[in-house]
Design brief:
By secondary structure, the protein is mainly alpha-helical. The chain is built from 12 helices and 7 strands. The strands form 3 sheets. A 3-stranded antiparallel β-sheet has the order 3-6-7, with helices on one face. Strands 1-2 form a two-stranded parallel ribbon.
């Protein structure tokens, strides 16, 4: 069993991909025997082939290992035309590959065909291990929110809270302490782990706000739905101007998350610093959006 000892769904997918890439690539193959299962024939008898064979086999093996997988067709990059600064794609560049679905991350590409370069992801990217950072780290950083303060303040109203002796000062002190603790944790993480953690937190905020998102949404689909949901709250409330930057901030976070997960260029220190800075503002906007939503009894 290729995947029996693999600890995570991602590791199982990689094990299948790695095994298939040991099979020889060639376009010169005979047709499968009549009524013979193509995958069985490719893996155990033919042991050579082209992209259709590799991709079909990986989809079947991934599904047997309990992984949602789909067969994808399109085109490879083609040849680069330096004179015109463009890639030239022709019919011979037609290609098939595989996407595997991981809850909380969406569909991730895999390249099982031995004749093409493997997909390279940043070596430091924790997305390769598919952690659940929002569960592991969030209680230590955002426990104040978990106590239900947004809901409590929403029901009591800001004016009641701020009318208490020292209420405003206490609120400011709590916010400063929370921000410092939050920033301290995030700055200690590697950049890719920080953005993966924050994307997980962002999805949690989306759930708490009851944003109309789906489990299979891509990062960009998710943040677009979240931004529109927050914008609707903003249009209905006098605090709306504070929420306007949410759309830009969540899109920027999604850009970094996608880069960390799929791009060969790793996040650098400048990305990391900007990420923490943006999150410390965005987190409060989302907290306010939740407060406004709860105060309306939604």
């Amino acid at each position: 069993d290729l995947t029996a000892t693999e600890p995570t769904p991602y590791d199982r997918a990689r094990a299948i991909e790695t095994h298939l890439r040991t099979i020889s690539y060639t376009l010169d193959v005979p047709a499968p025997p009549y009524e013979r299962d193509v995958v069985d024939y490719f893996l155990f008898d033919l042991q050579k082939g082209y992209c259709d064979y590799y991709a079909t086999s990986m989809v079947v093996l991934a599904r047997m290992a309990g992984l949602p997988a789909r067969y994808v067709t399109g085109y490879a990059t083609g040849a680069y035309d330096a004179a015109n600064a463009r890639y030239v794609v022709i019919e011979a560049d037609a290609h098939a590959w595989v996407e595997v679905y991981f809850p909380g991350y969406g569909w991730v590409e895999f390249e099982p065909t031995a004749g093409l370069p493997a997909i390279v992801r940043p070596a430091e990217s924790p997305s390769l291990e598919w952690p659940e950072p929002e569960e592991a780290l969030e209680p230590a950083v955002t426990g104040w929110e978990e106590l239900g303060w947004p809901r409590l303040l929403g029901r009591l109203g800001w004016s009641w809270w701020l009318a208490l002796p020292g209420g405003l000062a206490l609120l400011v002190l709590a916010s400063v302490a929370w921000t410092v603790a939050d920033g301290w944790w995030l700055r200690r993480l590697q950049p890719a782990l920080a953005v993966t953690t924050l994307y997980g937190w962002l999805r949690r905020h989306g759930q708490r706000l009851a944003a109309p998102t789906r489990a299979g949404d891509t990062p960009y689909e998710f943040v677009a739905s979240l931004a529109e949901h927050v914008a609707a709250l903003a249009r209905e409330n006098r605090w709306g101007e504070v929420l306007v930057p949410v759309a830009q901030e969540v899109r920027w976070l999604a850009d970094l998350y996608v880069q960390a997960s799929y791009s060969p260029r790793a996040l650098d220190a400048a990305d990391h610093a900007r990420l923490v800075q943006i999150w410390q503002r965005l987190r409060w906007r989302l907290w306010l959006a939740r407060l406004l939503r709860d105060s309306r009894g939604h």
